[in-house]
Amino acid sequence: MKKLANHEKKNNQQDNASISQGIKNTAGAAFHTVHSALETTENAAMNAVDATTNAINNLTDDENNNRRNQNKE
Question: Is the pLDDT at 25 greater than 70, yes or no?
Answer without folding.
Answer: yes
